[in-house]
Structures are given as structure tokens and as C-alpha cells.
Amino acid sequence: MRLFSTLPGELISIFKGLGNAADAVNSKAYLIGAYPRSIICKEDCSDLEIVVTGDLERTVDSFVNSYKILTDKTVKTAGRYFLISNPYSECDFIKVTRTRKDMSGGAGDIKSESFCRGFSIDALAVCLNAIDFGNIMDYAGAVQDIENKVLRSLQRDLFSNEPAYIFRAAAYKAKYGLSVDPITDTLWKRALREKNFKTISSCDLKHELHNIRKEKHGKDELKILKELMGA
After folding, report:
1. What's the CATH code of the domain at 224?
2. Which among 42, 84, 154, 228 is least surrounded, fewest beta carbons within 10 Å?
3. For the segment 199-209, what is each residue's pLDDT rounded down to a tens digit?
4. Between helices 164-176 and 218-229, what is the axis angle to 10°?
């Protein structure tokens, strides 16, 4: 499977620029999350998320200073992300962050990052470094789950540790018509019955509900949540 074969030239240019920036500081850079999934699903997506193994700050500096098409060189921060203006899409950002450590606290790499994602369908990664450009890294079985339309949690305590995923599960189920694998389904329904979402801050709760309402499938998402809460 060649994920990048159908992409426009400007995106390939950005990805190669980020890979070259990582190469320049002996780091690794990967595209991960929503965008690789969107290629397989043949849908529009502006969510460019890059994870870096190695020196995150120097990789960002290298890209900002060397990518000539980038006129706005202001780098913002949001949580653990650096935000770089997307030169081809006004008001959109390229999100760049470091790979998270594995469960035992070892140094983070693309494998540990993959299993830190909430769902397998968010764990597909593509290498951007020159020597491995376009190579798919699928440690979590993301491609198979995307193609089979299965929602599978990568963490047994996902919904209790990060209750926002209660809403995201409904969003993915409604948007992609996914079935939920048995273990994930049990954990999700339990979290809904126990109303674990009450532990979400009011700000995050409003954010999740806002996202649901603006989605084309928002009514379906709310219906799914309502049915499961009454189950």
C-alpha cells in the first residue's frame, strides 16, 4: 500500500520538508493519526499531526528555517504540541510533538507512540525521513481495523483515564459506521453506565459537545450516546 501516491504535490513537499528537517538533526519524523486514516477512507482532512523521535525543538527549528515556502515562521504552542502555520491552508496548523514513552518509562519511539493512541484507527504512522519516506508503520493493526470498520481501544483503562474518548467513540461509530470490538464495547458501555464523563472538566465537556453538534453525523452520535446510557 502506497499511502502517498494520490496526494497533491504541496502536501508531499511539506512531508519531505519535515523529514529533511528531522534528518538534519539526526531525528525521526512520522505522520500519524487522522491524516493517514483519511487517505484510506478517501475523505478530506486538514489535521496534520507529526511525532518526532529525537530532538523535537531542533527538528521544528530546522523545518521553520529551511522550508522556504513557509512565510509565517511563528511557532505557537498548545499543550504538548508545537503549532506551525500550514503554508497551503489558511488558519490550519501542522501539529508537531514528541513520541511518548512506553508503559515502562523507556525512551519513546514510534512503536510506543502507536500504543499510546486511544484507538487503533488513530495509530497508523508513515515515516517522513528521506531514506524511509512513505514507509507505513502499523504496529497496532490500524490498516486492518480501518478497512474492516472496527473500533478497537488500545488501552483497557482508556475511558476511565480519558473520559473524552467516550464521546469520540460515538463520533467514530457514527461517522464511519464502525462496529465496536467486544472488549472495547464492554468497557465503553460500562463507562457510560457509570457516567465517567462527569470527570471531564466543564470546558472539555463543552468542547466535545460542540464538536458533536457541528459534525454532519452529530445527531447520530447523540442518539448512540443516549441509547447506550439507557442500556
Report:
1. 1.10.110.30
2. 42
3. 555 555 555 55
4. 120
